[in-house]
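pinned: reference chain
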Amino acid sequence: MHNIHKIALMPNLTRKGAYAASLSTIGILHECGISVCLSETMREKYRNLDVSFYPDTNSLISASDMVLTIGGDGTIIHAARHASPLGKPLLGINMGRLGFVAGLEADELHMLRKLTQGDYTTEKRMMLRIVHSSENGSNEYFSINDAVISRGSLSRLIDIDVSLDQDYICHYRSDGLIVSTPTGSSAYSLAAGGPVVEPTMKCIVMTPICPHSLFGRSVIFSHHSELVVTASCDDDTQVYLTIDGAKTVIIKRDDTVCVTSSELGAEFIVLKDKSFYRVLHDKFAEKR
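pinned: its structure tokens
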């Protein structure tokens, strides 16, 4: 942990209030003597401010001490996939709805002043490594929330088989399957009936989506586990693999999806002394 001198700001300007929040954020950071840099794509919106611009996301993050996002959890997750390989910590300002991954709300911008004093902690979050293998070869993806195997628009059940460390363990007929990190346990997995897992833990959560079974429970595996999933359905229905709700690929009948914990991890800056369970309670209480 060290003092922050230069911040990569990644605002999602499609969010209501995000632009105004970004201007306030830049003002506070400048008062603290912190330099701000943005992507070249943001130049038109911020050209009259004392900020630097970088040609792409990797150069932007590489040049900074940390990444600050303004938006929802999707904005943070997108930034984390770039920041994690570069070893840069993240802090999210929530402009969305629940915002479990965000560290600050829009009315807490004053707390950014703690960054110059080193008055913060960091926590490491586990990520998943997903390898999709097909007749065309293998592709590797990394996820901070989840990997979801699901059916297309037709209402057909998918047949899903799961192996653990090369031993066959179960079969599901369901709408799909969610394999999540502890961070992702409070996202789609929770909505599908999965457990809430403290986000700094290391484990893999597997939750079937609407299983056609009396016993379609979630299962929690060690972070040392290797899960291999195959999925198939009728020929007129496609099956998809979706990574963190962003990247989607088609899964064929003989394809395999291998999920393990990744050597990469996402590091988040914590400015508030508030437990995850308190945050969980408050988020659901205020959004009811």
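why pinned: DSSP finds seven helices and 18 strands in the chain. The longest strand covers residues 256-270.
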